[in-house]
Structure of VWA domain-containing protein:
Amino acid sequence: MMEENLENWIILLDCTKSMNREDFPPNRFQTALSGIKIFIEEKSKALKKVRISIITFNKKISVVSELTDDVDSTIELISNKKFKKMNLSSGSINMLDNALNEALEILGQQIQNISGFYNCILLISDTEDLNISEKTQKKIKGLQISINIITFSLEKNNANMYFPLKAQHFTTKQDLLNGMKELALLKKKEKNNAQHFSEIMLEHGKKTRDFMEEIALKLRYPTLDELIKFNKKSRKINCQICFSKISPIKKYSLYKTGRLCPHCGTPMHLHCAGTWALKSSEHKGLFRCPYCYTLLKIPGAILNGLNKKSNKKEGSESKKQLVKMIVIGPEKLKQKYSDCLYCFKPIKNVSFQKTFQCSNCKAYFHKKCLEEMYKLDKKCLNCNGNIV
Ligand SMILES: [Zn+2]
Ligand SMILES: [Zn+2]
Ligand SMILES: [Zn+2]
Ligand SMILES: [Zn+2]
């Protein structure tokens, strides 16, 4: 859930030669720094928590200040004489794109690890002919990052080169400084309506989920040592969602379906994690580790199986789902998740062993496992469909 008072801001500052010009006295670069200083000061006064990072760009991209809530030291850094006298050099065609990608990398990690922050990029430049590639635009949209662009020069600008983003353009020093202050004080809701604010936040739905899924981490398999611990009754090692060794769903043991958070090593049953992911308010199918809040994902087939079961409860029992088991060639198995959902061991991409997939829930099964399952009760173990 998004809270109003937590914001991450990555400030991208143009450091190309033209920023030496003295038409915004003492020069464009120092005026931009004064604007940033005002922005940070106002932000930190207005918010419960704001984290700032500053990235400069010309031919080179430099993270001059890491993302931190210690705003005083960020201000100190940019007020430093040495910083103000920074060597401004010529730029390159891709510089803005590269700088944006650096910022997206930092924010992507933030999204992966912590929820509840509003993630923003502020670009300050004296040029309007900077390009943002389509790929980068898609990433910004997908991660739901808001981007604010401020440009300044003595000329009034006509063309908007940042299409489809809108820039706010200033022609005097005082207007620029006022604009920075205004931006810092804008409330989130107002931002959505503000003219210079991009339409990016308005896009929701599938695309966003795809990008979130891309940055979410897979649960990892236990190591041999961990497996032994999972199996020992005396040890107090349980699934951290249901707090027991045997999962309430399908009664799987931790030994069989226990997986761990790749970040902190918290153990949980695959199906417990899946149930949790389906209830997730942030993005359906993704969830956060109960211990360290890392964004995690669950194999789609497990989610399908859990979904099908809950549908079945509501419907009448007479409706029997018929499923086919389809042979899958090795080339299709290159997909990220290829666990057999009978034995819960990975399906190796070997051509001499046949693999099958349930037509209903898309679960994969080893040939041997499918045969055992068929002998048992002729049902797909993952979705309960009757095998025909
Ligand atoms: Zn569990
Ligand atoms: Zn964790
Ligand atoms: Zn198997
Ligand atoms: Zn199935």
Notes: The first helix runs from residue 28 to 46. The two ends are 44 Å apart (CA to CA). The domain at 318-387 is CATH 3.30.40.10 (Herpes Virus-1). The chain has three domains: 6-210, 216-298, 318-387.
